[in-house]
Amino acid sequence: MMGRIPSRAFTTAALAALTLLGGCSWFGGSNAPKPAPLEQISPQLAVSVAWQGRVDSVKFPLSVATPKGQYVLAGTDGVVQALSAVDGASLWRADLNQGLAAGVGSDGRYAAVVTRNSELVVLDEGKVLWRKTLKTPVVTAPFVAGERVFVLTLDRMVLAFDALDGRRLWELRRPGDALTLQQSGVIGAYGNTLVVGQGARLAGVDSLRGTVQWEAPVSTPRGTNEVERLADLVAPVVRSGELLCARAFQSAVGCVNAERGGPVWSRNVGGTQGLGGDAELIVGADASDRITAWATRNGDVQWTADQFQNRRLSAPAVLDRAVVFGDGEGYVHFLSRDKGKTLQRLPTDGSPIATAPVVSGNTLLIVTRNGGLFALRPQ
Predict the structure, then answer these.
(1) Please, what are the domains in the chain?
(2) Order of strands across the sheet with 79-84?
(3) pTM for this predicted structure
């Protein structure tokens, strides 16, 4: 995630949201392009399955929190749980008895989700602390830090609550576009600053007062109508030092300097899923699942890979030895960092991978739409 906010020391858009990703990217359809066949490979990377588990089906934009060696996650049915990253052992479990629309955000103690009834629910190590009904739908997982819970609503309003008692601390309303994207947006932190996606811009917000400190564009939306100009930033985002790198939906990939609050580089490229990366590489797939790796510092193209055309790739994870994508048929693909060549491929349960592979220590968690949990360890 994008850093940590210390503890307390420290005209809305029309809701004509597009369900673009829910309809086409997750599952495809009868008119979807045929996915490229799986290539013949000679495995060059050993990967073991450390443990497996299950949640209910994942029919919402899932985010998995990774505080202190844990995976905190949930299924569509509203069961929220914390699992040990080492062996998958249950640390706590809570059944909210309501379906979820967004989740999960956690700092290791507090966890927050949003139900289909637009109810923000905050738990303290598995025990419900409070519930708060929101006026606007939410599809982005709340962000929890510094004993506060931050929420980004579908119309790009930002809300801050006291994690202990649910008291509303502030709200930030911005003029917005007529359309917003029904896909996980960007919310996190850089130092003491809350960082949120506001359309095609990344904004730094004072976490105590809710005032905007800076804005930096990732993309300049163009088009003849509101649909073509839709360029919301989508999660996940990559942080490397002062740089925060993000994808603007179907528009561009770019990095901004969170210390100065200004853009560093941007490249016009389509795509619907977020990015993976580290201090050297930023990696993402375009709308046809052609993968590109850019140099983090300046955006120069390092390599491209087209062996996964139309396979409905997830956002990636970038490891020390490999770049990892999931696809729409439940396969997990490991690519070399230097050239993008396929090193290994593993099956899961045959359903689409629900979110980017999630790294905690030496464990890589894969979550499928059918609720399968597969913890992998590259050797």
Answers:
(1) 58-173 (2.40.128.630)
(2) 70-74, 79-84, 90-95
(3) 0.91
